[in-house]
Amino acid sequence: MFIPIYDGLAYRTIRVAWATWSVLALSCLFYAAYALRLLPGRLADETWLSAAFGVIPAVLLGSAALPDGLPLVPEPATLVSGQFVHLGFLHLAGNMLFLAVFGDNVEDAMGHARFALFYLACGAAGALAYAAGHPESLRPLVGGSGAVSGLAAAYLLLYPRARVWGLFLNRIPLQVPALWAIGFWIAFQIVQAWFGSDDVGWLAHLGGFAAGGALVVVLRRRDQPLFGAGIGKGMGKPAVADDP
C-alpha cells in the first residue's frame, strides 16, 4: 500500500479548510469518547455502538429489524452517522490521514458548504454500495472510508499531476504523482473487493470512489479546472511544479 503523508499543494481560493478540519475533529472526538469510555450506558460497548449508528444492510433494506431502542437515529440517517464512528485507532488514523492530505485541496476546489455536502454524499453512496452488495448482511458498516474514497477520486480528477509524499509498502518514503499513488490505491481496492471478505467494506470504498468522481464534476467551482490545469497557483501550502 501507499500511505499519503503530504502533498504541498497551494490553495487557490480559501485560507483555512474549515469543513475538512471540522470533519476530522468530530471524527477524532467521537473516537476519543469511545476509546476513553466516556460514552453513556451501552454506547461504551463496541457492538451496541456500531448497531446504534452504523449502516446495517438488512435493516436499511427492510429485510430485518433491530430491537427496540436501536438504532439511535432513523435508519436512513445512519448513512451519515456511521461515517463518524471508528472502532479502531488504525481505522481512524488511515481515514483521517487521507482526509488531511486530500480533503483541503478538494475543499479549495469546491468551497466549504459544497465540500461538506460532497463528503457526506460520498460516504452515503459508499454505504449504499455496500448494502447493495450484501443485502442480507447484519454486520454494521461504520467509518469514513467511503467518504475519503470519494475524496481520492476528486483529487485524482482535479490534481492528477500533483506530487504526493508517502510511504510505499508502509515504510519506504517516496514522492510520486497523485495519478500513480491513487491509481495504485484504487487497484488494491478492486482486488480486495473481488477476492476479499466483507469484514472490510471494500464495496463501500468503491462506491464512494465512483460517487466522488461523478460529484466533483458538478460541485467544483466554475473556475476550477479538471486534470491539473493551473496547479500550483494560489495561496496556502507551498506550490509544487507539474511533471514535465
TrEMBL record:
Signal peptide: none annotated. It is a multi-pass membrane protein. GO terms for molecular function: peptidase activity. Keywords: Hydrolase, Membrane, Protease, Transmembrane, Transmembrane helix. The chain crosses the membrane at residues 16-36, 48-66, 86-103, 115-132, 138-158, 178-196, 202-219. Pfam families: Rhomboid. Gene3D superfamilies: Rhomboid-like. The keyword Cytoplasm does not apply. Residues 78-221 form the Peptidase S54 rhomboid domain. GO terms for biological process: proteolysis. It is found in: Membrane. This is Membrane associated rhomboid family serine protease. The lineage of its organism: Bacteria, Pseudomonadati, Pseudomonadota, Alphaproteobacteria, Hyphomicrobiales.
